[in-house]
Every structure is written in C-alpha cells, then in structure tokens.
Amino acid sequence: MNKKGFSLIETVITIAIAAIVIIGVFSVLQSNIQLSGRNMARVGAVSLVNKRMEMLRNLSYEDVGTTGGIPSGDIPQEEFFNLNNINYLIKTFVQYVDDSTDGVGDDDENGITADYKRTRVEVSWDFRNQSDSVIAISNFAPKGIESIEGGGTLSISVFNAEITPVPGANVHIVNNDISPIIDINVQANDQGKVVFPGSPSVVKYEVVVSKDGYNSAQTYDANSENPNPSPGHLTILEGKTIDVSFEIDFLSSLTINTLASGSYPLGGVSFLMEGEKVIGTDADGEDIYKYSENHTTGVSGSLAISDLEWDVYDFSSFQTAGQVYDIAATSVPEPLSVEPGSARSIDFVLVPHAENTLLVTIQNAVGDLIPSASVRLFNSIYDKTVLTGPTGQSFFTPLSAGSNYSLEVIKAGYQSMLLENLSIEGQSNSNLILSEL
Length: 437
Description:
mainly beta, Immunoglobulin-like, 4 domains, five-stranded mixed sheet, 1 helix, 30 strands, 11% helix
C-alpha cells in the first residue's frame, strides 16, 4: 500500500505561512488597539478643552483671566488633569486684544487698547511615547463699550544677531510688586513679537527672553552692584505703549590654548575673559560687562568653553601660580569675534611679563593677516625690527613708557607706513591696515 503524508519541508513551509498570517493578524490588532487608544485620548482632550472653554464662558467678562496673567483671574495658567489613566496638561492663556478698527496703540481713537479678550486653551498629552495636543481659541467681548481700569501696552520684539525675528522665543514676564502678581510665560509669534494691551500701569516689569540652544536676554534690577542697569526693568504708563526689543541667537563654543614661546603647551594658566556687551554702569560710570569670567586652562594648556554667547571677547591677566605673562602672539587677531552658532579657537603664545610691551598686528584691507612684514620700532635709545609671523604679528619687549616711539612697517607690494609719537604704556596693542600698491 502507498502511504502519503507531509514531508519535513512541507511541514516547515506550512508552519512559516501560519506564522506570517498570525503575525499579520496580530500587527493589525495591535495597530487597531493603538489607534483606538489614541482616538480615546483625543476624545478626552477635546472634552477637557470644551469644559475649560465652557467654564470661561460662564464667567463675567471682568473675571476672564489667569492667575499671574494680564488680565488677571482665577484660572490657572497650567494645570494637570488625569482622565482615563491619561495625564493631560491644560494650558490657558488670556490676552487683551487691541483691535485695529479704532486704531492701535497710542493711535487708538478712544485711548483704550484693551478692546476685548482672546483666550487660548491647549490640552496636550503623551500616549505611547508620542505627543499630541488639541487647541481652541475664542474671543470674549465686553457688554457695551470696552473699558479697563487704566493700563498701557507692553510690546516686546525678539530678534537675532541679523535683526531677523525669532519666532517661538519664550518670553517670561514677572512683576512681584503688584497684587495680584504677574507671572507669564508666552511664546513670541511668527514676527517675534509679544503684545500685552491692558498691562497695569506700574513699574518693575521683569522680562527674560530665551529659547533652547540660544543665549538669553533680560532686563536688570538696579542695585548696589549695578546701579544703572541697561536695560532696566520696565515701567508701563497709563494709556501709553512701551516698545522694547531683545536680541538672542544660537550659542557657540570656543577653545582656548595657552602656549609658551616655541609653541609648547603651557598648562594651568588663569586669565580674564570679557565680552563687549554691557548690562549697565557702576557708581563711577564704568561699564559692567554681561560676560566677565576668570578661567584656567588644563594641564595640557587647553580649555573648551561651550554655550557661549555671540560677542566680541577680550583676554587679559594671564598668569600661573608663580608667573605673570604677556601675549606675544595669537593665532587670530584679538579682540576675538565669536559669531552665533560658531565653533572657534584661539592660541595665545605667552612670555614672562614686562612692565611695557607692544603687540603689532598687520592686516590688509579685507582683513587678511600679512606675514613677513618688516616692523621697526624705534626712538632715540631703542631701535628694533621684527618680521611679522604667520599670524601677521610682531612683539616688542621690554619697552619704556612714553609717547616718543616711531613705528615703521614695510612690505613688498604694499604702501609703507610710518607712525610717529606712538604711546606705549602697559601691554599695548596696535592693529594696522596696509594698502596694496
């Protein structure tokens, strides 16, 4: 008798086909479950948005506002709510609107910039590592002619280094000197602006502007350390519009290397690094710099600084535990300009300190450094010529203080230069530009 059955290969193929079918069915079921869960989460979010909007509609016009907001009210700006085992974040934002129909700002026909209120309710949540949100916006108009118990308009603009608007920048506004206090976090619109009509007419509005990956900018308090801040905290005047702007841009990084003569690494060198941006003046009228920090290079003579604000930086006071140094050469001209979102480096060649020195940097009209230029410094008792190195620099030390020096620069293909009555005092720097023939 012939007996027929399944071979091993046929059995394996059958099992494989069955596994594919089962996995496919399971994937469809899993997708349906996830889709159902997301839909359920969205339904819950829509329900919370509608409830919050209904709550606002049931308030009197005067009571439509948020705690710490402009206008003020009893609705929290942020609130967590758990529904169907899903954690939701409810954000409520209420703002006066200055309608263009009767003029805007100081040109408003009736002098009232708070024409009506606009509310924005956003409910956000995470479901299976995915974020989602539902947003609703509604306007609330007063019964009859708009009115407000005084106030002005606070208008804030956020720009980058190229004076281009920065949308999405976070603007934090605080005023703790009034009751109820104001404490608002709001994002700038596509034009980089935030406008608050109906702001109470009081002093000391504190503003901080920030964004992920950017430097921050802010107003400053007047105190003993900074008696004349710039910019100081803001004051809102009755019926007036105050326009202020802040500049923020991408953070940068800077690597600093300290070297001994001969380009050998020199570690453990401390120095002062200061930017040009000013946040006020002290009691003597001296500038207070936004960035003024002491740093120390590592044992390898290197230091990496991250999250650095774009600025023009100056370096001074190089020293170790037992030695003070002067700058004999740099890899790029100083002061150093650090552009937004850049990664820069600078090398300092240091020599033991002398009371009076001169570092000369020679460039052409477009900023290129000029090597091998003949630089002669002389007077009645001193006469020395030093060729510029690869970085276009010549260093002279030690010198005597005074203004009786002459400086002559000669380079083939360029017009010669002669400076007379050059003043030398301390660690002097001279950046010169040669014109091509």
